[in-house]
Design goal:
about 600 residues; TIM Barrel; 2 domains; 8-stranded parallel beta sheet; HCY_dom; FAD-linked_oxidoreductase-like; EC 2.1.1.10
Length: about 600
């Protein structure tokens, strides 16, 4: 029997199609742990492999793409990793039988949801080592690394495999149509690094359909002795009636086999949306086709401009301003109705009182208000204050978040406070759904990526945003040190300044200073004037993250009306002076759109500063 390398040299080898897509079509529900099927439904897995082999596949990928302990832990299966790997390899081998073919031990990237804590590289290495070692122990013919979007992670698994003695390593990148990775390399540059790291064959899978895959491969140079692979998707998915469907037909795949061979592809399979019929159509055409051994890259015309277009930079930097003087920002919610006159009146008064910036909440407490994006545009019309937009993950999926942020960037808005957001069911529209594709840390990472010029999928944006990224910190908790750890994670993700929940205790202000000063990041301490006893009781008992000392609440209980408000403002002034003695920034929160109270407090703090 010819060796695998012999076959890659002499013919166009056909791989299998999508394991998951075919299993779903056979009745497995989405969200099920596919890897577990090797234990609970071995006959079904054997059938899937056999159907692909009958269709003409020579490379059979094992059911182990996500058989890492991290992924399996979500199904409480991490202790069965070796059993799953062993059974998956056995099933693929049994299906192949005595026919010509090779078992590919499959390893995919370790995916984490945006709402989950990131996994550090040392932990990732340990997880990959366990899976790769198990596959090698089971005697797979090659290791097949698929659907990797991060070059550094793919290089890591190659290094692990080489150190464990594996010598046939297939490395596949999930590259989108632009042919550029999120780390900045072109596909050609990435392939070169993968070959240098020991990859036997490099290729693309999991991101593009037939035409886009061919288009990407046209720009790849192929030298003698190099092997190239492609596993295109069956087009883009359409979601209908609870299922995903793909439009690219088996005949369409068959018709394009020759074009893949012309680009030097010697291993051709299918990914998302492909089934045995697609593989059979390709195998029939491939029988009479030989791939090119060498080819130059196709040079596409590049249109140069005299100067790169940059996004407008309208706003001054809040961080630069902090280097010059104490900065006063005021939170002032947009109105709940279409009557915007009072809001604009308040904006003008707040600016006149000396505020440097105005922060605009994003339907805080899940209460419907005019879009803070629109409110920020109105703020620009009537003032020169810096608008700081709160962006919550609650109301927009990943697509919508990016679209809005890109729009903000093109309009020159720079200051964003990244928030997870209060659950929709807690607000005035309890029937609304909360999205939460991201949490605050995921949103911070997204903002940092946009600043580098890439979206969440790693696509080049042909420009960069210039966001100054803020994050929230809640000091009003018994788990203070845990909140500091969470803040450190936000800073590691890319946050550049901090805004806290309102603090109503001088000792807590000092504690916050002592804990946060070593982090070396600008901090704006929240300061909210209390209106009366009922206001204080509501905030203390019903608003998450706010705690008001009992002594203050008792003092307010003894007065009412304007006297209560004066007590509240006086108490806020004392707290404000303490804040300004320790921090260079202060964050005034306007209660119930009473901008006159924020104006009064600003005047008191400015007068004390001058004296």
């Amino acid at each position: 029997m010819a060796t695998l390398i012999d076959r890659l040299n002499e013919s166009l080898l056909i791989g299998d199609g999508a394991l998951g897509t075919y299993l779903y079509s056979l009745g497995i529900p989405r969200g099920y742990c596919i890897e577990e099927l090797s234990l609970s439904h071995p006959n079904l897995l054997e059938k899937v492999h056999r159907d692909y082999i009958d269709a003409g596949a020579k490379i059979i990928r094992t059911n182990t793409a996500e058989a890492n302990a991290y992924h399996l832990s979500f199904f409480k299966l991490e202790k069965k990793l070796k059993e799953i790997v062993g059974r998956s390899v056995q099933l693929a081998r049994k299906a192949l039988g005595s026919r010509e073919g090779w078992i590919a031990g499959t390893v995919g990237p370790i995916w984490t949801k945006p709402t989950e804590s990131p996994i550090d590289m040392a932990t990732r290495q340990s997880l990959y080592e366990e899976l790769i070692a198990s596959l090698i122990e089971e005697g797979v013919d090659l290791l097949f690394f698929e659907t990797f979007t991060e070059l550094s992670e793919l290089l890591l698994v190659l290094d692990i495999a080489r150190k464990k003695g594996a010598d046939k390593l297939f490395a596949f990148i999930a590259s989108f149509e632009e042919g550029k990775l999120s780390s900045g390399e072109t596909l050609g540059e990435a392939f070169s690094k993968l070959r240098h790291a020991g990859a036997t064959l490099v290729g693309i899978n999991g991101a593009c359909g037939v035409q886009a895959s061919i288009h990407l491969l046209e720009e790849i140079e192929l030298k003698a002795g190099e092997f190239l692979g492609a596993y295109p998707n069956a087009g883009k998915p359409e979601f209908y009636d609870g299922t995903f469907t793909y439009s690219a037909s088996p005949s369409y795949f068959g018709e394009n086999v020759a074009r893949f061979a012309e680009e030097g592809v010697c291993l051709l399979g299918g990914d998302y949306g492909t089934e045995p019929a697609h593989i059979a159509a390709m195998a029939q055409r491939a029988a009479t086709i030989k791939p090119l051994k060498e080819k130059p890259p196709k040079r596409r015309p590049r249109y140069l401009v005299s100067e790169q277009e940059v996004l407008p930079q309208i706003e001054p930097s809040l961080l630069d301003l902090l280097a010059l003087k104490p900065v006063f920002m005021v939170e002032y919610d947009s109105p709940k109705t279409l009557a915007i006159g009072k809001f604009l009146e308040g904006v003008k008064a707040i600016e006149k009182a000396g505020a440097d910036a105005i922060t605009l909440a994003d339907n805080s407490l899940a209460i419907l208000r005019i879009s803070n994006f629109a409110a920020a545009i109105h703020v620009r019309r009537v003032s020169k204050m810096i608008p700081i937009l709160h962006i919550a993950c609650r109301d927009r999926n990943l697509l919508g978040l990016q679209s809005e942020l890109m729009g903000l960037g093109t309009l020159g808005f720079r200051h964003i406070l990244a928030l997870t957001g209060d659950p929709a069911k807690s607000g005035d529209h309890p029937g609304a759904t909360s999205v939460y594709d991201l949490n605050s840390i995921g949103l911070i990472r997204l903002l940092a990526s946009l600043n580098r010029g890439f979206n969440a999928a790693g696509k080049d944006l042909k420009g960069k945003t210039d966001f100054i990224i803020g994050c929230a910190f809640n000091p009003n908790t018994s788990q203070f040190e845990a909140q500091v750890k969470k803040l450190e994670a936000k800073l590691a993700a890319g946050a550049q300044f901090v805004m806290t929940q309102p603090i109503f205790d001088i000792q807590l202000i000092k504690k916050t200073y002592n804990y946060l000063k070593p982090l070396g990041i600008p901090v704006f301490i929240g300061l909210m004037p209390l209106l009366n006893y009922r206001n204080a009781e509501f905030l203390h008992n019903e608003v998450p993250g706010i705690s008001i000392p009992e002594a203050v609440r008792e003092k307010l209980k003894a007065v009412d009306g304007e006297k209560a408000m004066e007590v509240g403002v006086g108490f806020a002034q004392v707290l404000g002076e303490e804040i300004l003695s320790l921090f260079k920034g202060i964050y005034l929160i306007t209660p119930f759109l009473r901008y006159d109270i924020s104006v009064r407090l600003l005047e008191l703090l400015f007068s004390r500063k001058k004296s």
